[in-house]
Amino acid sequence: MKNHYVIGAILALLAALLNGSVGIISKNLFMSNLTSAAISFYKCLFAFLFISIAALFHKGIQKEIRELRVRSKQLIICSFLGIFILYYFETAAYQYDQVSIVVFILLGTSALTTFLCGAVFLREKKNMFQMVGLVLLIAGLLFMQMGEGTMNFHFSIGTLLAIIAGMGYGLFLVATKKFDLKSGLALVWYFTLFGSIYLFFPFVAEGFVLPQAHAYPSLIALALLPTIGGFYCTTKALNYLKANQVQFYELTEPIFATLFAFILLKEMIKGFEWLGAILILLAIYTSEYQPKQAAVPQDSINRGEKL
Q1: Which domain holds residue 132?
Q2: 127: how many CB neighbours lie within 10 A of its CB?
Q3: Which of 8, 64, 202, 253 is 20 to 30 Å from 231 by CA-CA measure?
């Protein structure tokens, strides 16, 4: 049992590590001739092609793809929110702001959206810890918008794009749970299929462009690491841990993203942005906290049965 927990924790942390690589790889691709729309489109298209190739040799994936066909309308909605909105606006945000700021604002907005929409559409009841987390989250998002060590409030284009991406991802999580879509590579296959179709339109609108030879390794890395690898590690971790435990470990993603940005891009959050980042992390961990139920003594149960 202990070994299962360790394996699950490692897989969940690996998923966070892989997902944390999106920002630095995207920033690297901006130095080529690719626009943010092109990066989003090619990343999604490559992931779709890789899973399609894997499906040719795996009958289990083929079967799941056929079974999910009847859920096309729900898959189209989720793909719009979780692939088009998230990928397009997140990638665009990296053109204007530091990786760490984009990730923290995206994560915070996603958590806020999930909190509010989960209560409305999923009828989720909120406990005291989640309400405290909501207050900390709003405070953290406000502090992230303050200048480097000053009390001046600023709102950049990158911030707006990160907020839109976070709202899309938060709605995607709510919709996926509402529609009860089961995890698996077949599900990712449909998401990347419809996502590629959605992303094709802004890609063409900004001007059709083919990647240069040196851009292919980074595009393939984006497709394999966060898009496929991150999802695979998450679903595997669910075989060993409870869903809330997996989510707890994957909340380390902004920490990995910040470290990658500092080491490879020399980017660093400053001033009140640090306080905002800490409050956002604290808010999400507080919201995910599950108090242990007090054990009922056996003799009390026996007395109740006698009554």
Answers
A1: 2-289
A2: 12
A3: 202
